[in-house]
Structures are given as structure tokens and as C-alpha cells.
Write a structure and sequence with these properties.
This protein is an alpha/beta fold and about 500 residues long. It is built from 14 helices and 19 strands. It has a five-stranded parallel beta sheet, sandwiched between helices. Helix 2 (about 60-70) crosses helix 3 (about 85-100). The protein starts with a strand and ends with a helix.
Length: about 500
């Protein structure tokens, strides 16, 4: 396909009226910024143009339509006015028709239409050609008032910064498509390497973090799904998500304070649907799941409170997954670490205390990883000292870089022969989460037999601790302090 121009910007002229007299309009600023950034990325000056003034319908067919046939990419600036503009809709229709005659609106895995969302517009009001196109949101929603603010420098430096971040996303994606169109047979450096990541749709309070992850993954060469808006009907959502998950080796779900909507005809929220389908996808192997909850999250919606409780406590909801409640930068580190490692095999039953003990080389000491909360560092020292006579003891660390601490924890789960979880100042939720992390060690790359697992029921005694039961570890009552006799069964099992 030979094109005379790289991109055409279709917009409603009302959206380019300057808010402050003497300043340039929003579309004019977008146009100029795109020309600069695309030129920097391509290494040459692009031809991006727009119709600066309406000529009237009598000139439309003989001028603009012919030009649109020779345009590589259409950029639509969607707003309440745009979806009501006969002229703008004709531009969209003319480009779409021309694209169909040239082999289709989609080139390989990319659409030749880019949707810039200047102001929110309900998806059902979008022209049909745009309803399956992912948009670039050039606005922010105030979480408290619900008011919409366009990304415009007149609203302050933060809005200006966000404008350039979003424009950079748009420019990178346009450049990637232009390079594909110019060199359809070339393996470009920016082309995805064949690894897919399902980045689940989330709620508005985590939209910025999701966009940051999407940008980061794409810039590292990964294909990010979904590549189009999810349908509004439950059955269609399930079909679309299932199809996308089959193309992925990893799913990432961000869980925030808001409860996601329930698709039409369904009973489960969008988040629950995506999570359940990811669980099903994981059963076939070569797939990993990550869920992230911001640390210190405050939730008021009872429905979301119950969902988060199930994610933390229900083994079925967390089957084959890692649940992280840590800093956002740590999540990014874990994602890239996951993608570099082999994907998890098909899910196997959780390990139990009857699992075969690891074979230890003659003369060596089995390694024991003692996991405890920072508050219990001093209390756990008595057990660490006692067990050091029998094992090479590793224990939890709390000082240093967050990413390094996480890597140390994962390394220990991959290599240790036994695990002892110290149930002291923490609660049952913390203990259950640590137990699940041990069970998911194969997903971190563990190739050794399952470790022998014990849980020390340390002081202070409480009804919660006395009721604690599990089939996946030895429960070792130590309410009166260190009892060597009560630890003997665990020691014998680990020594094999």
C-alpha cells in the first residue's frame, strides 16, 4: 500500500476553540505535539494533516474523500460534539470504506484507526467504526467529585505532564503501525516477541496504573490484551476474554477500592469473570497469574470488601496465582521476572506433609526457610538458634530494596528443603497467604520436590490460633515457648 500522507486528524471544530483568547486550540496543540514526537521516533518528518476549516458538503466528495484514500492512519478526536458532527462522521466513513478496498481496516495485529478520547462519550454513542477501537483517554476523572478534566496545560503542570505521557503512548503506537505499513516483511525491533500478557480491565481508581503497565509492557515488546474494548453482554465478554487468554502466558489483575460493573445478562462482576476465566486458562499449563492490591487499600463498598476477602482466603479464587500487596514498582519487577522465567506447568494438587522428603547429599545440611513477620524477629530467634543445630537456616529479611527482598524470598522458596512459618504476632490471614506462597513455588521455577512445611503456633495463645487447622502443613503448638520435643516430628521429617 502506497500512501501520500501518514495520518489525518478528524475532529469537530468546536473542540479546537481556544479556552483562553490568544492561545491555540486543543486539537492544534495535539497536532503539533504529534508531529514533533512522531518525527523523533521515526527519525524523519511525518506528514500529519487535518482540515483546518469546513468547506461545506458540496466539496466533500470531490476533495476530502480522494485524499482520505491515500492516508495511512486516521486519528479521530472523539467528544460529545464529534459524535454529532455529520462532517466528522463522513470523514470516518470515507476512510473506513477506502481502507476496506485496500485490504481492511486492520493491518496484521494493528488497526489503522486511532481513537483519541478528548471527553468521555458513552460507548453506545460512538460511531460503529469506533466501538471496537481502544481509546487513548486525554482526560482525568476526579475520584471525589466525579468531574471530568481534559488534559490541558491550563489545568496545571500535572495535567500537562499527563497529556505528554498519553501523547507518547499514542505516538509510539502510530509509529509502530507506520513502520509495519512501510516495511511489512521486516522484523522490526519494536515488534512484539510473541509473548502475550492479559492485562485485565480494572476500575477507574486504578486506570492510571493499568495504563502505566500497558505502556511499559508494550515498550518491552510484549503483546498486551485485550486489544479492543470488552463487550457489554456477559456471554460476549466471556467469549472475548477466553479468546484473548489463549494467546497469553501471563494475566495481571489490578484490584482497587471500587467494585466493577456487572455485564448485561450476568451475575458476576467484570473482575470476577476475568479472574475465573484466567483460573480456567491456568489449568492447561504454560500460564501464570498475578493479582495486585495496593498496600493500605481502604475499601467502603461491601461487595468489593467481600471480593478481596475471597481473593485473600479462598484457595479456589487464588488457584495458581500470586497475590501481591506491595508497592506498584515491585509489581512491575515481578511481572518482568515472571515473563523471563518459564511459565507455570499445568496445576497439580497442593503439596501436603506426606510429600516425599528431598534427597540431601551426604554430609550436607538440609536448608530450612523460617518465615516470620518483622514484629516477631526477636521472638523467633529462639527457634532459629535451636534449628540451626540441625539445618542450614535462612530467615525472613526486612531491610533493603523491596525488589531485592522479594527476590530473596522467591529464591528461598525455589531452593529450600523445608519451610517453617512462625505464627506469632500476625493473624490467620497472613499465615494462610504465606502457606499459599509455599504451595505456588513451582510457579517461581522450583524443580525440587515439595518442601516439608511446618507452622509454629507461638505465643501469645489465642482462640484463633487454637482453632487453626490445615492439611497442608504440620501444626506445631509452642504456646509456652520453645518445646524441642514438639518440634522433633518436623525435624525428623525434614531430615528424611
Amino acid at each position: 500500500m502506497n500512501f501520500e500522507s501518514d495520518a489525518f486528524i478528524s475532529y469537530a471544530h468546536l473542540d479546537n476553540v481556544e479556552l483562553i483568547e490568544g492561545q491555540k486550540g486543543w486539537v492544534t496543540n495535539l497536532h503539533r505535539a504529534l508531529e514533533v514526537r512522531v518525527a523523533q521516533l521515526l527519525g524523519k518528518q511525518p506528514h500529519i494533516w487535518r482540515d483546518p476549516k469546513l468547506q461545506g458538503n458540496d466539496h466533500f466528495a470531490e476533495t476530502l474523500v480522494e485524499k482520505l484514500r491515500r492516508v495511512a492512519v486516521l486519528i479521530t478526536v472523539v467528544s460529545p460534539r464529534y459524535v454529532k458532527s455529520d462532517w466528522a462522521l463522513k470523514e470516518l466513513s470515507a476512510f473506513s470504506q477506502a481502507a476496506e478496498s485496500q485490504g481492511g481496516i486492520r493491518f496484521e495485529d494493528k488497526l489503522r484507526i486511532f481513537k483519541v478520547l478528548k471527553t468521555p462519550v458513552s460507548i453506545d454513542k460512538h460511531p460503529p467504526e469506533l466501538q471496537l477501537v481502544l481509546g487513548y483517554e486525554f482526560f482525568k476523572t476526579d475520584p471525589d467529585s466525579g468531574r471530568i478534566r481534559e488534559l490541558n496545560e491550563i489545568f496545571g503542570p500535572e495535567a500537562q505532564r499527563d497529556f505528554w505521557l498519553k501523547l507518547d503512548d499514542l505516538a509510539h503506537d502510530i509509529c509502530q503501525l507506520l513502520e509495519k505499513l512501510e516495511h511489512p516483511d521486516a522484523k522490526l525491533a519494536s515488534q512484539p516477541v510473541g509473548q502475550g500478557v492479559f492485562l485485565a480491565e480494572t476500575t477507574s481508581d486504578l486506570r492510571e496504573q493499568r495504563e502505566t503497565l500497558r505502556r511499559d509492557l508494550q515498550q518491552h515488546g510484549y503483546m498486551v490484551f485485550p486489544t479492543r474494548p470488552l463487550p457489554s453482554v456477559a456471554s460476549e465478554v466471556k467469549a472475548a476474554v477466553t479468546e484473548d487468554l489463549e494467546k497469553c502466558q501471563l494475566s495481571v489483575m489490578l484490584v482497587g477500592r471500587n467494585h466493577s460493573s456487572v455485564p448485561e445478562g450476568g451475575t458476576d462482576s467484570l473482575m470476577e469473570i476475568q479472574n475465573q476465566l484466567a483460573i480456567e486458562r491456568g489449568k492447561s499449563g504454560k500460564f501464570s497469574r498475578l493479582l495486585w492490591i495496593p498496600p493500605g487499600l481502604q475499601v467502603e463498598d461491601d461487595r468489593q470488601v467481600k471480593l478481596i476477602e475471597r481473593l485473600r482466603l479462598d484457595p479456589g479464587m487464588m488457584e495458581g496465582a500470586d497475590l501481591l500487596e506491595t508497592f506498584f514498582e515491585d509489581l512491575r519487577t515481578v511481572i518482568h521476572d515472571k515473563l523471563k522465567r518459564p511459565s507455570a506447568p499445568a496445576l497439580a494438587p497442593a503439596p501436603s506433609v506426606q510429600s516425599p522428603a528431598p534427597q540431601v547429599e551426604s554430609g550436607s545440611h538440609p536448608s530450612l526457610y523460617v518465615i516470620h513477620d518483622q514484629r516477631d524477629s526477636e521472638a523467633a530467634s529462639a527457634w532459629v538458634e535451636h534449628l540451626y543445630d540441625h539445618f542450614e537456616v535462612l530467615q525472613s529479611v526486612f531491610e533493603g530494596d523491596e525488589a531485592e527482598i522479594r527476590e530473596y524470598h522467591d529464591d528461598n522458596l525455589r531452593s529450600c528443603d523445608g519451610v517453617l512459618i512462625f505464627y506469632g504476632s500476625t493473624n490467620e490471614l497472613w499465615v494462610r497467604r504465606k502457606l499459599r506462597e509455599v504451595q505456588k513455588a513451582p510457579g517461581y521455577g522450583r524443580t525440587k520436590p515439595a518442601p516439608v512445611v511446618g507452622i509454629v503456633m507461638a505465643p501469645p495463645r489465642s482462640p484463633e490460633k487454637e482453632r487453626f487447622r490445615t492439611h497442608d502443613a504440620m501444626v506445631l503448638p509452642q504456646f509456652e515457648g520453645l518445646s524441642a520435643a514438639s518440634l522433633q516430628q518436623f525435624i525428623v521429617s525434614l531430615k528424611g
